[in-house]
Amino acid sequence: MADVAGELLRAWADQPAVDHHCHPLRRWPFEMTAVELRGAFTEALDPQMAERHVMHTVAYQDAIRRIAGAVGCEATEAAILARRNAAEPGEYARRLLARTATAFMLVDNGFVTAESFTLPEQEQAIGIRQRQIIRLETVAENLIHDTNDPREWFGAVRAALRADVGRGAVGVKTICAYRATLKLQPVDTDALGVAFSAMRLRAQHGRHPRLSGGALCHALLFEAALECRELDVPLQVHCGFGDPDEDLAETSPLGLRPLFTEPDYRGLRVALLHCYPYHREAAYLCSVFPDVYMDLSLTIPFAGLEGGRAMGEALGLCPTSKLLYASDASRYPEVFLVAAAAHREALANALGELVDLGIMEAGTAANAGRRVLAENARRIYNLKD
Amino acid sequence: MADVAGELLRAWADQPAVDHHCHPLRRWPFEMTAVELRGAFTEALDPQMAERHVMHTVAYQDAIRRIAGAVGCEATEAAILARRNAAEPGEYARRLLARTATAFMLVDNGFVTAESFTLPEQEQAIGIRQRQIIRLETVAENLIHDTNDPREWFGAVRAALRADVGRGAVGVKTICAYRATLKLQPVDTDALGVAFSAMRLRAQHGRHPRLSGGALCHALLFEAALECRELDVPLQVHCGFGDPDEDLAETSPLGLRPLFTEPDYRGLRVALLHCYPYHREAAYLCSVFPDVYMDLSLTIPFAGLEGGRAMGEALGLCPTSKLLYASDASRYPEVFLVAAAAHREALANALGELVDLGIMEAGTAANAGRRVLAENARRIYNLKD
Amino acid sequence: MADVAGELLRAWADQPAVDHHCHPLRRWPFEMTAVELRGAFTEALDPQMAERHVMHTVAYQDAIRRIAGAVGCEATEAAILARRNAAEPGEYARRLLARTATAFMLVDNGFVTAESFTLPEQEQAIGIRQRQIIRLETVAENLIHDTNDPREWFGAVRAALRADVGRGAVGVKTICAYRATLKLQPVDTDALGVAFSAMRLRAQHGRHPRLSGGALCHALLFEAALECRELDVPLQVHCGFGDPDEDLAETSPLGLRPLFTEPDYRGLRVALLHCYPYHREAAYLCSVFPDVYMDLSLTIPFAGLEGGRAMGEALGLCPTSKLLYASDASRYPEVFLVAAAAHREALANALGELVDLGIMEAGTAANAGRRVLAENARRIYNLKD
Fold first, then answer.
1. In terms of CA atoms, which chain B residue is nearest residue A310?
2. Would the CB atoms of C65 and B358 count as touching at under 8 Å?
3. Is the CB of B317 less than 8 angstroms away from the CB of C302?
4. CB within 8 A of A130, min separation 6: which ones?
5. Which helix (H) or strand (E) holds B293?
6. ipTM
7. In whole angstroms, what is the distance from residue C68 CA to residue C72 CA?
């Protein structure tokens, strides 16, 4: 760690961060296995990856090192599991999360199970303010059974978004990338009608309707974009890599262009999540469209040293007023810890390089970092202390 | 700046450059505003970007530093504006442009207004030799009113290109990327006829015909390619990023493949402009097709440290006999200054790294730089002193 | 070369490598020309590239330096040619190949001429164990004449693959990227029938049938994938850059997704070859699908410093248990030498950086390198000593 980067990290030590995209913690107590720990640092779904390959990734080795440093044990998987499984889980979680210096967690709770904390429980358990990010597709799937056509359905979805925002939700997130290409196509009313009927029929037969395909997902995304614009809340869009349910070739944020150029969406704030390996493309969008924002969550810490490189590459075109911090962590405090530490280091290294080269003064770099860690998110999500 | 890079920069101090792609200066005198200075270092068209975000880009901060260094004032926007607005504009412009060490400016004057210098005026005002690059689409739009079908239109366009080259123009530039995808498609005669008629009708109703869509733009591009080949002048192609009128997803130079593989175009020299984030792809094309060239203009200086990284990445596959220098600057001498300085530094750093690693000798690196700065362009544009 | 990287190189000095993808050597004696030496370090097919541009590439300059170092002559093309043309060719080849520390060469002999060694001749001539990789398209083209429909043809191809594996071949390689897009499409039985008939007709008229187009190539690839899975041998897929017969835009490994997600291919081991500039995408595939592997052959050493950068970028997501070593060399011992040396250095630098940053211990890094150089390939190709 270069000297300048170290100074930046120290300057930010008292800077609480806004984690603008994360997921609920797993309800404790539970006993954590090695496969679970490995599974927490990979996007692979196939258990063979955790069994045979995750331990050979840079991301996992770096995670082990960081967790061991934080809990004060030997830097091995076994030592970490022993330490965490012997600890009082609430105290352990709070200790790790305290090191993330997080003021707000904006939580996408669209994929929760009985073992997830609810947001109020989580706020109570860890003492960090929680705000909901609404998972669009979950809301939409739950409403299909009770509506008769796409128009009714969209109306019900938009009413649900309004209600959730009325109850304190601060944004909407779409996982369209997992269900269709992100190359948005104009709505085809006929195809939409057919796809809706098919999905509704499944719902009426008691099967959970899984939203998928461009006809449904794009039309829904456009409706949600209109509603977010009216509600003055950001729309978060999963872009770039993720688990293998998505086809990475179809997840470039460049496909979202209609949201940035069509007058109907003017003023809509869009936050591009993850982005890798399309982070250069995402940074371009941030550089020409006033209401586009991006983060490098998931990329940091899952992509090893590529996380830091992506940070540097993103700051080529992306203004520091457009970059956001997120952990994309879920379930385990360890992931929040690793994401936060790696993110601050990547940011300090990227900005530190600019100071070293004489392009930025140290004070400017420190302010830029505060913007990324908290101020940009406070502004675009209208967070009040 | 490493020692070797510094030595290279000193070795090139007396090397006049050929700026193979730039735009006219704004006719002085004029009073420059902060928003104009910011607007000169972004591809954004929305004024909100200049108002709220450009000052948070690495490119702008670096530009401020470089301009302040050149004019000898404090490194702030306000100090620069005060200094330049108080100066005698002609003397000020010549002083800044002298620092770019430019022997020839190849000027795309396809997008000029009453406040742009003409080329003879500009040569007179700044004392640097000017050569015209013909903007294909501007020529073609101006000729549509007087032609009756695509064949006549293409004939008129080709005659106009011949006439301009006869009067001293040294190349043709296409902005197809702003009007259609760059994924070139074979000409569809029927679609071409329909699109031509529609555009001609608009022209006959007194509206400016704006060329757009693949049917027209690709057919025109193929005709221009044939004519450039016959005239023995290069065809410049805007690739990669630019202002948001283009869809970045459609601007990869790989889409130009028919120009490189079809026998009709054999011998046509093609210069890929800008390229980012497709510079690795552009470098590949330069490595396998003998008459393909590339530059990193716009990327340097608009993409911050990515400009230097793109230089290093391009030199992975691109021979130094294929890389060209351009500023892509327009309107303000400050942009020419910043582009030239940043470009030489990026080149020195990339070649210096090769010297440091023992792959290139210092003399070889110095020669490679002279090739990029001037000799390659002199050769492919047939420039005579 | 940083200290840690140097230590890693020394640690691997006694580690024989498995070159999991290369081509036959040219039968000696022969006199090598400058154009041949240059042509050995470029993917260009047009002789103008070797005549005018290859000497201006980083790859060639680096190759000259490395060869000169190995044979102990001045670092010029002329000195190298003089030295090698004066040497006893067998002794010369063995000396250069010994420096590659290769235990096994897995040889794709699908593109051989009368001047290529056969595998037994090559093993005899150089004393390195040879194993065959079957070139799918060559086998398939040779069988078309004797079959009456696609089903018969696929049956014959699969029987031939089984027979070759029975005789010791250890894998199958497809050059689908040179003949069709790699964006695999489901088989269209009608289109397949038509394309087969057309190709068979050419064969019956005595012309060599050249397999091309998605209908034939994708259907064949799917059949080969099924057979490889049954035979328990890996399928090698050319991805990313290569000679200009391919359209680079169509060669991303992401297009192979059906091979990774469809249950029919479950357990099939796929080795992505070359990958650049899609190595980040390839690394992603390696990170989520248990049986996907990749290499950076060709990229190293043809892409200059980009080879090392690609190594670092690939190790962002790709586990070290998934990365393979290959030279992709052919014809000349010099290419094997340069590829091997550059590959080890790139690996040492990438892993050394992780050690420097405290993410990996030196011993872990050394083991990771052994995995990449040999162990991963031994495992997935079932190589026995």
1. B306
2. yes
3. yes
4. A104, A105, A107, A119, A120, A122, A123
5. strand B292-295
6. 0.98
7. 5
Report whether A293 contacts A376 (CB < 8 A): yes
CB spacing of C44 vs B260 below 8 angstroms: no
Nearest to A281 among B54, B248, B309 (CB): B248
Q: What is the DSSP string of B308-326?
A: HHHHHHHHHHS-TTTEE--
Rounded Cα gap, residues B196 and B213, in angstroms:
11
pLDDT at C266: 98
Condensed to tens digits (0 to 9), the pLDDT of residues B20-58 reads 999 999 999 999 999 999 999 999 999 999 999 999 999
Q: Do B287 and C43 touch (CB under 8 A)?
A: yes
The residue of B302, B305, B311 whose CB has the most chain A CBs within 10 angstroms, and thus the best one to mutate to test that interface, is B305
Which of B1, B38, B55, B57 is most worth mutating to test chain A (most A CB atoms within 10 A of its CB)?
Answer: B57
Contact A181, C257 (CB under 8 A): no
**pLDDT score, position B385:** 76
Q: How far is CA C142 from CA C137, C147, C156, C162, C163, in A?
A: 9, 10, 10, 16, 15
**Mean of the pLDDT values across residues B55-75?**
98
Testing the interface with A: which of B58, B239, B247 to mutate, by most A Cβ within 10 A?
B58
pLDDT tens column, C125-143: 999 999 999 999 999 999 9
Q: How far is B29 from chain C (nearest CA, A)?
A: 45
* B110 pLDDT above the threshold of 90: no
Which partners does chain A have (≥3 C-beta pairs < 8 Å)? B, C
- The model's pLDDT over B181-227, given as tens digits with 9 standing for 90+, comes to 999 999 999 999 999 999 999 999 988 889 999 999 999 999 999 99
Instruction: Please give the backbone phi and psi of residue C16, each rounded to the nearest 5 degrees, phi first.
Output: -65, 140
Judged by CB atoms closer than 8 Å, whether chains meet at C244 and B252 is answered as no
For residue A2, the model assigns a pLDDT of 64
pLDDT at A226 over 90: yes
Query: Is a pLDDT exceeding 80 seen at residue B359?
Result: yes
Q: How many CB atoms lie within 10 A of CB B226?
A: 15
Sign of CA pseudo-dihedral B95, B96, B99, B105? negative
* Predicted local confidence at residue B1, as pLDDT: 52
The whole-angstrom separation of Cα A371 and Cα A121 is 29
* Residues A219, A246: Cα–Cα separation, whole Å: 19
C-beta separation of A312 from A350 below 8 A:
yes
Contact indicator for A70, A76 with CB cutoff of 8 Å: no
Tokens describing residue A221: 């995304």
Is 70 exceeded by the pLDDT of residue C2? no
- Give the pLDDT confidence score for residue C1 in this predicted structure: 52
Classify strands B292-295 and C270-274 as parallel, antiparallel or unpaired: unpaired
CA angle B148, B154, B158 (to 5 degrees): 135
Q: Do A277 and C288 touch (CB under 8 A)?
A: no
Torsion sign over Cα C103, C108, C111, C113: positive
Strands A235-239 and A270-274: parallel
pLDDT digits (tens, 9 = 90+) for B326-355: 999 999 999 999 999 999 999 999 999 999
Q: How far is the C-alpha of C293 from the C-alpha of C285, rounded, in Å?
A: 8
What distance in Å separates the CA atoms of residue C54 and residue C62, rounded to the nearest whole number? 12
- Which has the closest alpha carbon to C237: C252, C216, C219, C249? C252
The strand pairing partners of A298, in sequence order, are A301
Rounded to whole angstroms, the Cα distance separating B59 from B44 reads 13
Instruction: Enumerate chain C positions whose Cβ falls within 8 A of a Cβ in A.
Output: 183, 252, 254-255, 257, 260-261, 280-281, 284-285, 287-290, 312-313, 315-322, 353-354, 357-360, 364, 368, 371
Indicate yes or no: CB of C288 within 8 angstroms of CB of A244.
yes
